[in-house]
Amino acid sequence: MLRSFPLFLIKLLNLETKFDVWNSYNVPMARGWESKSVEEQQSEAISSKDKSLKALTPEEANRKRLIDGLELKRKAVLQQMQAAKNPQHRKMLEGALADLDGKLAKLR
């Protein structure tokens, strides 16, 4: 990359010493990715996620997916209610929110 700069700019901006690292074979990187502890943390996170998914029965997993979907819809309705200006639209959103709350109550 340094070689693509015009020579007068390299000398003017003193880029020779600043970008000398780029010319070496081994480019420095953040220390966190070099250590094995990061790999261990990532593998632990993946294994704990797998354990939590395996612990659920198919019926429980389906119920959890339904609840997560309803909660997501509820958040979307709340966001729309905050932006709603028309009273009729707001009333419709309040009805939708009440319906979602009822469905969530039945599932929980």
Written description of the protein model:
- With 108 residues, the protein is mainly alpha-helical.
- The protein has one domain.
- The chain contains six helices and no strands.
- Beta-sheet strand percentage? under 5%
Mean pLDDT: 77
Instruction: Give the end-to-end Cα distance, rounded to a whole number of Å.
Output: 59 Å
Number of helical regions? 6
**Strand-pairing-aware structural class:** mainly alpha
Tell me the overall shape.
Answer: flat
Task: Give the oligomeric state.
Answer: single chain
Share in helix: over 70%
Radius of gyration: 28 Å
Topology:
Layout: H1 7-12, H2 15-18, H3 20-23, H4 36-54, H5 58-83, H6 87-107
Helix pairs in contact: 5-6
In short:
The chain starts with 6 loop residues before the first helix and ends with a helix. The longest helix has 26 residues, at 58-83. It is flat.
